[in-house]
Amino acid sequence: MARSRSRRPGLNRRAQYSLFASYVIAIAGAIAGLLALILAKADPAGFGVLRAGAAELTRPVSATLSSMVTGIGSIDEHVVAYINAGSQNSALRRQVEANRVRMIEAQAIEQENVRLKKLLRLTETTKSEVATARLISSTSTTLHRIARINAGLGQGVRVGMPVRAPEGLIGRVLLSGPNSADVLLLTDSQNIVPVRRASDNVAAISTGMDDGTLEIRPLSAGTSPFKPGDVLVTTGTGGLYSPNIPVAVVVALKGGFAVGVPLASPARVEMVMVERPYDANIPAPPVPAETTGKPAGHTP
Amino acid sequence: MTGEPLNGPVPRLGRMPSRWRIHGTPVLCVMLGSMVPALLPLISQSPTLPPLGLLFLVSWRLTHREIWPVWIGAPLGAFDDLMSGNPLGTAMLLWSLTMIALEFADERLFWRSYWHDWLIAILACLFFLSGGFLIARLSGSAAPFMLLLPQMLWSALLYPLIVRITAGMDRWRMMA
């Protein structure tokens, strides 16, 4: 292709000025982007309103598409089942998987009961589910692992709430718009969850590795006590996630830590549940000035 | 020599395409490309989709130099940031720089062939993806660079198709 017409305006003064102005605006745009990045670093939720608005714009399409396509991620599963032994195989496998999760949960609850009986000061938990939703899209071009659900402020979803599927933990709410919310997935490197082994109480920290796996680091020093096949559940430490939600299964050992795979694959789960934060005694974020001015001591 | 007949609208039956169609089509095309990850019900566990917004931006810009002012990278980049999930400012900054760089490249390259265009698009993608990686790293992510390689490869391989789509839309845009 021949060289395109040069923008060089020649002697025309007006054209010279407008060309110069367009360069100035372009550089100003780049600087504005840099400033926005610095602002976003200082205050990550600063542009939340804009992003929530954008989410509202695309939600109708992605929600419709996701309800039509029942999980792109499960296609491979169906194919494998057909090759192996027909459609029955897939159904049976699902059943076994569901039973396994039940068993893990039962095992964990049993242990939890022993512990709780010692504590005696029990707090009864109310029904903690806020909303059920569907994962409708995700940030599939970027390095951040954030998925979007089709429930937001209107359905009672607030920032910080844990999100889980029947199979296990999915993540926590990062940003909530009117009818949609962004969920930071378990596998994002900024999502850190305290976990313990379901069979005993070996505590560990799970951190996302951004590639669909988790890094499981034991809290105790020394060699990693985990072995492939270990199932990890939440501890309830930190007050965000309620205890005994299945998190991951250990698949490999690498150096001082174990590599885990989430039990609930976001690509395959059909519905997710948004729950209330586990412990309501966690102090709320600083209240605005008008409520702090109220005289204390009126409550019994 | 200047390629004038190719760059201007081609009237059919004495009609001219509307201004909206002439100027709106490329912008809408890039915006639609940016919206793809938010529209598809695809829950990915690593960066999988190529940056379609950027690919369309580069493709339109290389096809027609005259349709956009130099500063178009900033507003389109801001929209891409809102849709893609990158921190706001990432594409705004990187796309602006890309457009300025393309402007300088145009002054230097006397003849551009298809392969030049492809190479330019690949470089733009590499710049955008590694820039996004750097920004994600600075904001606390611990993702390894390896994760980006498949995405870079697919972006490079996808460009010829993007050019075809752009050319098709361009025909429609020009002919009323």
What structural class results from the helix and strand content of chain A? alpha+beta
Count the beta strands of chain A.
Answer: 13
Helix content of chain B: 55-70%
What value does the average pLDDT of chain B take? 87
General form of chain B: globular
Q: What would you say the CATH architecture of the domain at 78-187 and 267-275 in chain A is?
A: Beta Barrel
CATH superfamily annotation of the domain at 78-187 and 267-275 in chain A: Rod shape-determining protein MreC, domain 1
Beta-strand content estimate of chain A: 15-25%
Number of strands of chain B: 0
* The level-1 CATH class of the domain at 78-187 and 267-275 in chain A: Mainly Beta
Largest interface: A-B, 65 and 73 residues
How many strands, which pairing sense, and closed or not: the largest β-sheet of chain B?
none
SSE-based structural type of chain B: mainly alpha
**Quick one: overall form of chain A?**
elongated
Q: State Rg of chain B.
A: 17 Å
**Counting H and I runs of at least 4 residues, what is the number of helices of chain A?**
5
Low-confidence stretches of chain B: 1-5
Helix-strand topology string of chain A:
HHHHEEEEEEEEEEEEEH
Strand residue content of chain B: under 5%
Give the % helix of chain A: 25-40%
Tell me what you see in this structure.
The complex is a heterodimer of chains A (300) and B (176). Chain A is an alpha+beta fold and 300 residues long. Helix content of chain A is 33%, strand content 24%. In chain A, the strands form two sheets. Chain A has a seven-stranded antiparallel beta sheet with strand order 1-13-4-5-6-3-2. In chain A, helix 3 (75-85) crosses helix 4 (87-119). The radius of gyration of chain A is 25 Å and the shape is elongated. Chain B has one domain. Chain B has seven helices and no strands. The longest helix of chain B is centred in the last third of the chain and has 27 residues, at 148-174. The relative contact order of chain B is 0.17. The interface between A and B is large, with 65 and 73 residues.
